[in-house]
Amino acid sequence: MTKKIVILDFGGQYAHLIATRIRHLGVYSEIRFPADGPGDLEGVAGVILSGGPSSVYAEDRPDFDKAWLGVPVPVLGLCYGHQVIAMETGGRVHRGDIHEFGAADLRHDGKSALLKGIPSPTRVWMSHGDEVDAVGAGFSVVGTTDNCRFAAVENLSTRRFGVQFHPEVTHSTHGQILLSNFLDICGCERDWDMGGQVERLSLKLREQAKGRKVFLLVSGGVDSTVAFELLNKALGPDRVLGLHIDNGLMRADESRAVMEFMKAQGFDNLRIADASDLFLGRLAGVWEPERKRKIIGDTFLDVQAEETAKLGLNPDEWLLAQGTIYPDTIESGGTRNAATIKTHHNRVPAILELIEAGKIVEPLAELYKDEVRALGEALGIPHDLVWRHPFPGPGLGVRLLCQGPQAPAAPTESVQAASAIGATRGYSVLPLPVRSVGVQGDGRTYAQPAALRGPCDWKALESVATELTNRVRAFNRVVYHVAGSTDFVAMEAYTTRDRLDLLRSLDHETTSWLKREGFYETIWQMPVALLPVLAGGRQVVVLRPVISREAMTASFWEAPADKLGELAAKLLELGAGAVLYDCTHKPPGTIEWE
Ligand code: XMP
């Protein structure tokens, strides 16, 4: 049994960052929740308590089952996790008078196994308000900084460790060494690498399928392509059937390219269904993002059911496969808030019922995106396909924003407050008569974007965007006006073929530009959205390029101004009335606008 490290998620993306770091060190890691208790410990070689935004004294701190501190394996607490260990093992935590954020120098005598091979002093990254000011019996201090006496502590007899800093962030110069030392303390072999996973995942798939056949929807994105290749390898093409549904919400020429690629890979077990009329018919007159998502998710299932009925597939002999990846599974049941922000297409209620009934296999459900890509390369999928940008299941459906008869209008006070913030940096503020989805304080927001006019200075735009979304509730996004008209007028608009065609041509031009200029692999993704807003009588387009590792958080990408100007001119030629550029991080904005 491969050994693994369990990471207890005390909040946000810290846990994901630790999990990825551990995997990059060659050990499988899995996220669990502190309230749930240890339960099954088979294969667990160690436990890491993550950081978190909370204070150990906060009313709303995450529940923690103390049984986690009694497990017979080493436990390491990071930041908040360090304070939890101190509190629960006879130490004390006090509310720090000085909040410590950013760089600090850790000094140590080199004797602790946790700090082995790390120079002293070493740069570490701090982010905390509360602070440990006493540790329980058996603990000793093994590292300190100027402002933090209990920066690194250990209890060798119980194998409990804690550090106040964040070794998982790259700004802690030797953080990876510390994590690697912890893996040594846990006795972990370094046996997790994606090349080696093809066999293991194939074996697991064969066990799950129990002789049955598997049906998979293949969108042509990285995840479903890798899943399809893996299923074919594990079960053989006779037991796998792929269906590509053209929902009318694909990018330019996408469906044809998917079919050609699969043929070239030697697969003839992929069918195509043109269901664009059905999808677009059901979306007619609908503008609310969550309703659109639900309709698209349900229609995928209906088309799939219709196709399987046509083929006469016996439901007892066939399972459904999905290309779900790890952050999706954790987001839906996990951070316990993501599902309320956006309903991912592979977690609609009908799918949840099938999962419950054991009718679904998700061969990539343990993997992060970078691991799916490594697996794809190990399976021999061409580089360009493996490195395609992620594309959401509902496709352009969530990038073609719609608007009912009632357009939003921010209250005058909010517009004045936003204008005052913009003016400090030389920007004028124009509220856009449309709403987009965002995530603030771990909850969904649905509010207006504010457009800024002024110099293309990304640092200034970043600071205005941050201050504006922090201070003025009416706005959850900030966009920069790159080119075109600014007389924004709301437009009643829905999902129609002509709007989709315009979006497809703008999107195609943008992707070609990214590739031509050599930016494609610098960024995570660059959604292009068409807004139900007119400028100079034509629809407004917004560009949303982001840098990210896992899509849980993201920062907007700072495009070179001259190159961006060239792209914008081309988009105006193609029919856009104005080109906007999203300069909101995630949070507070999500990556997609809906
Ligand atoms: P957000 O917009 O939530 O997106 O910041 C995070 C990442 O997820 C993608 N995304 C989806 N992927 N089905 C998917 O498979 C969906 O319904 C969906 N919605 C968003 C998005 O493109 C980004 O990479």
What report would you give on this structure?
The protein is an alpha/beta fold. Helix content is 33%, strand content 23%. The protein has 17 helices and 26 strands. The strands form six sheets. Strands 17, 18, 19, 20, 21, 22, 23 and 26 form an eight-stranded mixed beta sheet that branches. Strands 2-1-3-4-11-10-9 form a seven-stranded mixed beta sheet. A five-stranded parallel beta sheet has the order 14-13-12-15-16, sandwiched between helices. About 1% of the residues have low confidence. The protein binds xanthosine-5'-monophosphate. Xanthosine-5'-monophosphate binds next to loops.
What's a quick, concise take on this entry?
The protein is an alpha/beta fold and 594 residues long. It is 33% helix and 23% strand.
Keywords, please?
594 residues, alpha/beta, eight-stranded mixed beta sheet, seven-stranded mixed beta sheet, 23% strand, binds xanthosine-5'-monophosphate
Write the layout of secondary structure elements.
Layout: E1 4-8, H1 14-24, E2 28-32, E3 44-49, E4 75-78, H2 80-88, E5 92-94, E6 100-106, E7 122-128, E8 131-134, E9 140-145, E10 148-155, E11 160-163, H3 175-185, H4 194-209, E12 213-217, H5 222-235, E13 240-246, H6 254-264, E14 270-274, H7 276-283, H8 289-311, E15 318-321, H9 326-333, H10 338-341, H11 349-356, E16 360-361, H12 369-378, H13 383-386, H14 412-423, E17 428-431, E18 436-440, E19 443-453, H15 458-471, E20 475-484, E21 489-490, H16 497-516, E22 528-535, E23 538-543, E24 546-547, E25 555-556, H17 561-573, E26 578-582
Parallel strand pairs: 1-2, 1-3, 3-4, 4-11, 12-13, 12-15, 13-14, 15-16, 19-20, 23-26
Antiparallel strand pairs: 5-8, 6-7, 9-10, 10-11, 17-19, 18-19, 20-26, 21-22, 22-23, 24-25
Helix pairs in contact: 4-5, 4-12, 5-12, 7-8, 14-15
